[in-house]
Known about the structure:
Oligomer: single chain
Helix content: 40-55%
CATH superfamily of the largest domain: Spore Coat Polysaccharide Biosynthesis Protein SpsA, Chain A
Largest sheet: 8 strands, mixed
Number of helices: 10
Strand content: 5-15%
Radius of gyration: 25 Å
Bound molecules: uridine-5'-diphosphate, magnesium ion
CATH class of the largest domain: Alpha Beta
Strand order of the largest sheet: 7-5-6-4-1-2-3-8
Amino acid sequence: MNTPISLSVVIPVYNEEQGLHALFSRLYPALDKLAIPYEIVFVNDGSRDKSAAILREQFQLRPDVTRVILFNGNFGQHMAIMAGFEHTRGQRVVTLDADLQNPPEEISKLLAKMDEGFDYIGSIRKQRNDSWWRHVASRAMNNFRERITRIKITDQGCMLRAYDRGIIDAINSCKEVNTFIPALAYTFARRPAEVVVEHEERAEGESKYSLYSLIRLNFDLMTGFSVVPLQWFSLTGMVVSLFSALFFVFLVVRRLIIGPEAEGMFTLFALVFFMIGIALFGIGLLGEYVGRIYQQVRHRPRYLVEAVLEDVKGEK
Ligand code: UDP
Ligand code: MG
């Protein structure tokens, strides 16, 4: 039996060929400096560039501390992290993006905080270097999420996070599809804490998140962790039907006292359109939940692993 690994670092990689070498040249020294047994688990999320080949090369260079999981398609950042988690052996697990936006040197800061007895360490970007619309959008989503879930994450976009083994085991036992790892982990944490970390501009390549995939991700976050949107919708429905009932009574009384009316057609249209709008929104919202249920009950594999590169000597 080898010495138990105390730290696993999980890194999802999707089309990052330009930045990977820079990542290696900072990540390995930073971890070597910690002087603890560690492993790095790279998960190639079906990159269409040379990322997989670069990861293979790196595995040859440092097989003792490197493991590589190759997906055979693009299953998304959070599924990649899930797969990484299943292959970790460390007592603590840190997730990191491949683009060096979170400096690997900050990992020690998270571990130091864990030493104080916390089991989940989130991170807050000191000053965020992303495009302005990302700032605005994520502030709005943060506020909204705070209101509808019990999850308190100051900076939900920052993936540099550390988890204790217990949380990782709990996550591994979840069979959720399309989830949001930091939120899922938070629901299992007993003593969460946060630290402030540096944030750099993306060195190479570009963000893999389009506006559309960001919206999708946030829908997953909202509907995956809360039914409050549905409850709000039924409340809205209640209020609207209350008002239309009052309106109906008013019209009946008016008809009896003043007589029939033909004016006010367009007011009526406006009212009807408004209500149709609410109804459509509600159907869409219901669809989000039904869609989640549908994906879950199909029991399809959440991701497909093509190959796992690991040093078998290290096992058992
Ligand atoms: N990523 C992934 N699969 C995807 C999209 C992204 O594995 O479908 C990885 C990507 O390689 C990076 C991390 O997830 O390591 C975060 O992506 P990115 O930096 O593009 O997101 P942003 O920092 O813009 O939020
Ligand atoms: Mg990034």
